[in-house]
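Field: COMPLEX_INPUT
Field: COMPONENT_COUNT = two
Field: RESIDUE_TOTAL = 481
Field: MODE = joint
Values follow.
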Amino acid sequence: MDTIKKKILFAEDNESLTKIVLYMLGKEGYEVFHYPSGENVVSGVKEHKPDLILTDVMMPVKNGLTILKEIKEDPDTKDIPLIFLSSNNNDLSIQDGLDLGAADYILKPFSIEDLSARIKKQLNIK
Amino acid sequence: MSYILLHIIVYIIFILLCTVYLLILYVIDLRLYHDYLTRRQHKFEDQWEKAIFQYLQLRGDPEDFIKKVPSRKYLLLLELLRQFLLSLTGSEYEKIADLIKQKRIYDFLIKRLNSFRTNRVVTSAYFLGLAKIVKAKDLLIKKLDTDSQPVFISCATSLAQIDAVEVVEKILTRAESFKDLSRDSLLFILLEYKQDVCAPLLKLLSSKIPDYQKEAIVSLFRQFKYQESAPEVTKTLTKTQNIDLILECLRFIREIRYVEAHYVVNPMLDHKNPHVSVEAIKTIGKLGAGPLVDKIFSKLFDDNYEVQLAAAVTISQDIPSARDKLNKIAYNVNKERATSIARMVLSEIDLRRYA
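Field: COMPLEX_OUTPUT
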């Protein structure tokens, strides 16, 4: 892990999944900013300038696809990699996300090891 | 006489007031009980969550972990583990499932599975299936003979999660005993299986089973994109008069693009049921319209709105050779419904293109 803590913005409304992911990210030494809905995610990204965004697709107030669109439209945030967490194994939904510029798409339920590896890949951590 | 009547009215009002009072008390009691259970669960989670994370991280011994949990708190533990099992796969899922496989928890679940109380059996079967506890298979199979629909559904679902392919025929047979069991409920059970359930179901598709079961099977084949079943599904399509089953077969053929079914699908363009006609148009669009382009184009002028819309969408998405004609219809000056539909479909495509 790099000496400077990598920052991850994590948006997820499912309480139990949030606990598991927060535990995993904390264990790996990331600095995490959690948002329980899509409402303030975009402003949170502008404020914290995270190294990576990990977000659910279906969330209250604002969904992941809209968040991705807004982040990609802003020159200050457009290069931040965004990984979707989704329980929707729908080819179209995955395609929509990737077309809009998502870096990766992880289906729920997932393995902690897999999630960790894919985050590291986006952050270029070995 | 009037005094007696007044007496009766007062008496009825009194009974009604008492009933309302008792109902209010019951609702308050339910609410308090629910709050109590929630608080109890949260307290347990605060106490044990960290221990579970440590158990996962340090690859702890499941037996040692379970020994620390008092038996009266097993249900609270199971509820906490449920959240982990639903969120995780891979080695962490296995580690959590190992906790449920421990003798103390397993015996607790089996005792409840043999209970006379439906909710106990249902929750027990749920956890046995969620943790994929294969050694509970025989007991779950016995439970399929129940007269209770919730018990049947929960045990059949658990068996599917365990991937007990050998009992799928029994599940279908027993399902027939429950008159209220819908196609969706059956599909919900079957979808818990892995793809290896398709082979035995393919054999059953040609047997004498109710149409709603055939419908669920074809829907399952579609979701698994099970190509091997295509000839049998096509045969089913030619034999049945059941509209729902016809629609499901057409969706399957479209999904896997089974071109050999063209000869069966083509005549369905003119089916008297508009829903069938709609599915046939969409399916032919995906299989390749070929000589049927004009026929599909003529459906733009059908009496039924859904048929017209299906024709317009299919032309715009799947039949490039007819798009110019669709454009001409859209720019027509007359007030035909086909014109409005063509405009709507084409503007939607434009909107998507520039989104």
